[in-house]
Amino acid sequence: MQDQLLATLREQLVAIISGTIFVFMGFASCLFAAIRRRSGVRIFLWLGVWSALYGARLLIESSSVAAALPHWIQIAIPFLRTSLTYLLLPVIALVWFELSVGIMKLFIQVVIAIGLIIAVAGIGFFGATGSASKLILYSNVVAAAALVVLLVVVAVPGLSRKLLILPNRAVVAAGTLIFAIEALYYTLSFVFHYQTWRITGSLGLAVLLFSFGYVAVQIALTSERRLVSIENELSIAREMQASILPSDNPELKNLRVAALYRPMTDIAGDFYDFIPVDPNRTGFLVADVTGHGIPAALVSSMIKVAMQSVLPSAHDPQEVLRELNRILCVQLRTRLVSAAYLWLDTENRIALYSAAGHPPLVLWRAGQFERIESNGLLLGVFPDADYPLHKMPIQSGDRLLLYTDGVSEPENANRDAFGDHKLEQVVRDNQSRPPAEFLNQILSAIHNWQPPSTPQHDDITMVAIDVV
Fold first, then answer.
1. Which residues are bridge partners to 368 per DSSP?
2. DSSP-assigned letters across all residues of 228-280
3. pLDDT in tens, 210-260
4. Mean pLDDT of 343-363
5. Whether residue 200 is found in the same domain as residue 285
6. What does the DSSP 8-state code read for residue 69?
7. Domain that holds residue 88
8. Mean pLDDT value across residues 457-467
9. Are residues 453 and 316 in the same domain?
10. What is the tally of structural domains in the chain?
11. pLDDT at 188
């Protein structure tokens, strides 16, 4: 009896070792995909599931392994074996799906759908009748047809370049060919009742999995290199954007100025600038480009350049916006810009203000909160757009606030916007604070207004000016 058990174990040893290796490699591949959590490594997930399913099937087909399992698992082994057999086709197709493009992707989607339908029907039929192989023929026919198509696509360089993402076509072609030969060998052996060696099938699949794994690693490395390149470019873009913003707040006679700039992402579409003409006269520009990221940042760089050409008109906000609009209308395609320009003359105690589709200027004076709107069209809509001018006196104790809509639009858990009412409350509660502290209090109020851990949804820019 003992000799018989040893002989049985010896016969099944290859299947046990192979199954264990396939399961281990499958879990390792799935773990890698879970850690990386990027769309480019989904192929590792499906490769892992494929390897684990095949390894599990090898293990449960071994009577020695089955005998060592708990009784309740032994009872479920026929169901598990049937389920694993039917599910292998859609899982293998999912691996190919990650490497396909164009019409090939559509073909693989059809194979996945048919494979899942057959799998659900086959597993259900087994549960109802106990027959494990009732629909396996259909699954094999679909698998064989798909394999023939894949062999043709992989073998023809023109087709593989057009329909597949293959950094190294030769490796996948060799692996697929070996697997196809092995599958044909087993099919013919089954038809003509030849006895086959189990190790041959495992080696054939191992070669195919290795070829896929090799390609997947190449794709992942290419993605990593691309991400590193993008990070380097973003770093350069951040430095460039930082260089176009004022490096410090201006030292002005009778004015105390502070600015706060909090981009939503590393690269932002908000822009602000100071245009000091002399110690008594200064212009303040705040702009907000539609959209985010590098395209919006490029437009903000264009605004910086355009401002250099309108410096002779710095004393006239209306003309500044007209000129910026004319310049940007020629350059912009799909982006628009809201902007506000404030001119302060502390010698004559006069403020001039004009805006283009921008949130209103806030004036805090003698305990009163005032919103000053002087809006025309967004910059970039029509080249001949006009912008109304608002003129007002300024006096000691006035506080002016320019800001972008990233201040007023954040919402709380009830979907209520921060808005003018909340902004007025913060301005009123912090009227005695210096400009820099005042802006930080507004930013804190915005963060407290939003639900905890809510990400910032827009760029935030504020410029506070106290008349002293």
1. 365
2. HHHHHHHHHHHHHHHHHS-SS---BTTEEEEEEEE-SSSS-SEEEEEEEEETT
3. 888 888 777 777 777 777 777 777 777 677 767 778 878 888 888 999 999
4. 94
5. no
6. S
7. 2-231
8. 91
9. yes
10. 2
11. 61
Q: Do 298 and 198 sit in the same domain of this protein?
A: no
Q: What is the CATH number of the domain that holds 23?
A: 1.20.1070
Identify which of 354, 444, 359 has the alpha carbon closest to the alpha carbon of residue 401.
359
Does the pLDDT of residue 329 top 80, yes or no?
yes
Output the pLDDT for position 195.
57
Kindly report, residue by residue over 9-36, the tens digit of the pLDDT.
555 676 778 788 888 888 888 888 887 7
Last residue of a domain, one of 231, 264, 289: 231
> In this structure, are residues 55 and 20 in contact, taking their beta carbons and an 8 Å threshold?
yes
Domain membership flag for residue 45? yes
389-425 pLDDT per residue, tens: 999 999 999 999 999 998 988 888 888 889 888 999 9
For residue 17, how far is the Cα from the chain centroid?
41
In this prediction the pTM is 0.61
Q: Are residues 224 and 259 in the same domain?
A: no
Residues 210 and 261 in one domain: no
β-pair partners for 164 = 100
In whole angstroms, give the CA distance from residue 293 to residue 295: 6
Residue 177: inside a domain: yes
3-state DSSP assignment of residue 316 = coil
**Percentage helix, strand, coil, to 5, in the chain?**
60, 15, 25
Q: φ and ψ at 461, to 5 degrees?
A: -135, 135
Indicate the residue among 231, 265, 294 that finishes a domain.
231
Q: Is residue 377 within 8 Å of 388, Cβ to Cβ?
A: no
In a domain, 236, yes or no: no
**Residue indicated by tokens 């506000």:** 340
CA distance 292 to 299: 10
Cα angle for residues 230, 232, 238 (degrees, 5° grid): 100
> Based on the domain organization, do 226 and 285 belong to the same domain?
no
Cα–Cα dist 348/137, whole Å: 93
